[in-house]
Amino acid sequence: MAAPQQQKLKVHGPVAVTANRLTDGVVVWRTPDHGWSVDLNDAAVVTTAPEAIALLAAAQQSDIEAVGAYVAPVLLDDGHVLPGNLRERIRVAGPTFELPR
Amino acid sequence: MPLIENGHPVEDRFIRVGDDEALPDGAAVLIGVDRFLKEAEALRGRQAPVGIIWPNNRPIGEIEPFLGQLSLIALVFPSFRDGRAYSQARLLRERLGWKGPLRAIGNVLRDQFLLMARSGFDQIEPAKEADAAAVDEAMETYTVFYQPTADGRPSLLRQRLGRVAAQE
Amino acid sequence: MYVYDEFDRAFLAERTAEFRDQVGRRLSGALSEDEFKPLRLMNGVYLQLHAYMLRIAIPYGTLSATQLRRMAHVARRYDRGYGHFTTRQNIQFNWISLQDLPDAMASLAEVGVHGIQTSGNCIRNVTTDQWAGATPEECDDPRIWAEILRQYSTLHPEFTYLPRKFKIAITAADKDRAAVKVHDVGLRLHRNEAGELGFEVLVGGGLGRTPFVGKSIRKFLPARHLLSYIEAIMRVYNQFGRRDNIYKARIKILVHEIGAETFAAAVEKEWEAIRDGALHLSDEIIADIRARFLYPAYETLADQPAELTEALKDPAFATWHRNSVTTHKQPGYAIVTVSLKPVGAPPGDATADQMEVVADLAERYGFNEIRVGHEQNLCLPNIAQKDLPALWRALEAAGLATPNVNLVNDIIACPGLDYCALANARAIPVAQEIAKRFADLEKARGVGRLHINISGCINACGHHHVGHIGILGVEKNGQEFYQITLGGRADEHAQLGTLLGPAVSYEQVPGLIEDVVDTYMELRSGPQELFVDTVARLGIEPFKERVYAAH
């Protein structure tokens, strides 16, 4: 799961492009209209390496909105887009334990 | 690119000449180390100034025999994150006694200008036009310097002597 | 405490203004992320999984009550009401926004706190013994020397873009609580036969991908030469450390590749040229820094006052006292460790409320002083023994008196995959599960001193190599797995742990650790033989057989 930014791009199944918003670091997803959304359901989901590369390249053209873009696995579930591995689940839902209060 | 000398924009009178190009007569030239070392003997008789680009992966001590025939030394920052030339600059100034112009070239950005000046560079060739315009700001970012370096400022440890620690 | 003067305050204000300007240029697009990243890192700002993270230095582990209270304020105002104390005498806030960072930093700078050089390829926050200045074991207060190094290394123009990060640790006690043997440079302050103060200099230690125990390159460096010698080391490293491969860029690789003798010779040669120059530390300079450390005005008190003797009749207090209270150099005083490891909580986390409680208690009972140790616990270094019962009641009420210091559930853990962008696997929930298995502290006490260190990736922020039991999270086919090592230690006998066997799954880890501990309990020669000594005596085989038979 480490440093997905450095991994060779292999696409098995649906993927999306994700990054962190420049201003506050919040997790964002690349949308089909070349924007970013904090809602994974808005993400542009593709299933082949060439599509993923194109989506990533477009996302990386500017680093003024979002930083550190990379391709992340997602799951499609009855019209919903869900994070595809533990790292992405944590990015979406936060730490897996109760936070100090 | 503009050239900054001691904080002020100046005209660069040195012409950068590639390894295979002829040296223009009577003009100050800045050439690479390989060419310089190959032609060092011949260059000794040259009537116009010669400057050298010394790479950051070559021990700076090796430049010593040639210092007398140089009018400019340029040290290289291939990336602003590669800080080898800071050590070379200090060694040139503090160990080898180089008093002539010392120029920072390459990926030279405003957030490092002051570090360069403190390490002994008196000439800076900014990579960005906008950075050249911000040179005053960059140089004035700090008024407090903790450690002694090539710029001759005493360390803060020394400056403090005689002052009394204040109670919180 | 070291007292900042107008120079330090002016510097911090300038640094904050510079960072505010850099953030502005980043947000405007004048700086690209590639250009901005090293600048923000050198102010302690990371971009993690969920948000920006701010790492704040606690120089040589010393904090005032005012400073800790300001951290609580920043936690509440700009973060989510808590902070995480790390293994390097830092605190991290996990949920901060880039836009808020200049204001948060300005707020911290007002009380002399900052994130300068807590990241980046520069000389990092110099660490030392959290008991410095209070323990009878030391030959001098190592913070004097850490402070001299702090000043020397702060925005050092030559050494701000080193091949890689650079960590220096100092111990002045024979019992090493600063893990100096696993730092880029480790300094062991001691006196020679003539009674002069000086350092043994170790280089090339470190954990991470390629762990090494540091090598001694000089047995005795007179203390006045500290800065020139460090500068010589840095200059050799800056010029000759590898820059072609980030994984081979630390000084330990240079020392390993050219050999400690060759490295030492290069340092000595450079040092000869500068040893009596501008960095020479005259007696006057040393005395001046020493004078800026204000020590508590201790009262003349006797050990074991009546209040303490009476309170020790309460078994709960007595248990805590045995576990968390240590001998002070001054009669009638004690050093108190404040456990940030309540069973089942994230190791090293403290809420803003807890920070304020500790700050209040430091003010009331502890001469305003708080310490942070690399074990991710806090410490009140100057408590009158007669005040221990009242202190304990207040800590207990705030959940800060778990008597498990140095026990099996006093676990060191990095933030892991729950926060960190580099992690492969989670660390905090693993620590929580293991701690719960030993929730019966009677049982944990029976086990005795046992350090479990967990890292969520090979970068080893959880110091797993030097845990008595080390746990390293790795990833296999998208699943979290954990490698277990036994027999590591971070003290004066530092050594790296030995791999027990194949990695096990997330779910298997707590049970496996229980089996390891049970095996130790059966095999130890007696209660006096610590876990790590049993492993040293018997090797890992008996543990391996038992554990892998069961799993």
Walk me through this protein's architecture.
The complex is a heterotrimer of chains A (101), B (168) and C (551). Chain A is an alpha+beta fold and 101 residues long. Chain A has one domain (13-93). Helix content of chain A is 20%, strand content 29%. Chain B has six helices and eight strands. An eight-stranded mixed sheet of chain B has the order 2-1-8-7-6-5-4-3. The mean pLDDT of chain B is 93. With 551 residues, chain C is of the alpha+beta class. The B-C interface holds B 59, 80-84, 86-88, 90-91, 95, 109, 111-112, 114-116, 118-119, 130, 141-149, 154-161, 163, 165-168 and C 1, 3, 5, 7-8, 10-11, 14-15, 17-18, 22, 30, 35, 38-39, 64, 66, 121, 148, 151-162, 235, 238-239, 243, 273, 278-279, 281, 284-285, 288-289, 291-292, 294.
Observed structural traits:
heterotrimer, A: about 100 residues, alpha+beta, five-stranded antiparallel sheet, 5 strands, about 20% helix, C: about 550 residues, Sulfite Reductase Hemoprotein, domain 2, Sulfite Reductase Hemoprotein, domain 1, six-stranded mixed sheet, 18 helices, about 35% helix
Could you say which structural class the secondary elements and strand pairing of chain A correspond to?
alpha+beta
Number of self-contained structural domains of chain A: 1
Strand content of chain A: 25-35%
Order of helices and strands of chain A: EEEHEEH
Q: Tell me which protein chains meet in the greatest interface and how many residues each side has.
A: B-C, 43 and 47 residues
Question: What does the largest sheet of chain C look like?
Answer: 6 strands, mixed
The main sheet of chain A orders its strands as: 3-2-1-4-5
Shape of chain C: globular
Q: Which runs of chain A of at least 5 residues are low in confidence (pLDDT < 50)? A: none
Number of domains of chain C: 4
If classified by CATH, what would the architecture of the largest domain in chain C be?
Answer: 2-Layer Sandwich
